[in-house]
Amino acid sequence: MRRLAALALVAAGTAALAAGVASRPAHGSFSGGNGRIAFVRQAPYDNGYGQLYLMNADGSGIVRLTTTNNGPNNTQPAWSPDGSRLAFQSNRRGDADVWTIGADGSDLKEITFSQGFDGDPSYNPTGTKIAFETNRNGASDVYVVNADGTGSQRLTTSSGSDSDPAWSPDGSTIAFTSDRSGSSQIWLMDASGGDLRQLTKAANIGGENPTWSPDGKTIAFDSDRSDAGNLDIWTMNADGSNQQRFTDSPALDALPSYSPNGKLLIWVSERTAKGNRELYVSGLGGVDQHRLTIDPHQWDMSPDWGPSFGLRSCTITGTIHDDTIIGSSRNDVICGLGGDDQLRGGPGNDVLVGGSGNDVLSGGAGHDRLQGGSGSDVLLARDSARDVVNGGPGRDSGEVDKRLDSVKSVEVLLH
Questions:
Q1: pLDDT tens profile 320-343
Q2: Nearest CA to 279 among 122, 19, 77?
Q3: Which of 63, 201, 296, 412 would staple 397 via disulfide (CB 3.0–4.6 Å)?
Q4: With contact defined as beta carbons under 8 Å apart, do 30 and 126 qualify?
């Protein structure tokens, strides 16, 4: 990603771009339904700060997740496998460190505390470890730390720069960018740092910013091998074979991320206008390439496509704020996420998932499943249909059909 900023500098012909190195990509999707996309919205050329945002898979429902103002930079979001947390890089306490935050904006935790740069995090598939890059020993190296911040371990010891770690979906392998062979190329190592092998050997930037497909068979990356100074998205098999160009644009295309269902790819592009970085998405064949974000005044960077909330395939998704969501005539899975939400199912057989706030869930006329979250929820399922009602943690109340419904963890039954 340092090289990505350098390319932008050459193209723009101004030193103002030199600071634009802060936002890097996510590094792989965990399989499941397509959930929300985390990304960074920052001042152009990274004038000191950026913030984490979330949006729905179609680009709607954009909400800001971090709240620091005018100074601290929050960037490089990476989803946990279950979609409950994000790891990210922040300099809110001076130098850059790895932090984590709940998907509803709660429970902020600092994970690394070293002097210098720690960033570019990537979860392992069980969510128990985070790979990251650091310059605590001088040159950039790849380290691993437990997700609670304990047990830091160094994996690479090259005199060159090792960066952009990306954990494979099966947890056995880490892809990363290294210039140990003389230029930026994609390498693999096993999860303990052994068995290093080089995958790309092309000219210029042969490869950087690797990201895994959910099935672990393919790696997407960016490279300027065909046109020095102009990055495009490339893909290859996980053993380095079948390297193929995915985008062919005269503008910058970089920082790819797969969707959790493995059918789409999202990336950063300047094809809308020079110096205007937006998020684009398309199918794996490169068809239907289209813009997902529109903000001519700020850059949208570092996309990471997360799994559906709690690994559920949400068809309608709320935000981290207080939402009122009404289902359609189809069989919906409505996920409220954060905030104190009101979720109302339609006439279909719906699933309503409250999230972390104090929510009101109303099933509607079908055979519904109502799942409260950690708050004190109200679950309304008295509709003469057989429903499944689970209040979850907290002191919950509900209206149910006592002879029809399966009821659990509802402390107060309303009459």
A1: 677 888 888 888 888 776 678 888
A2: 77
A3: 412
A4: no
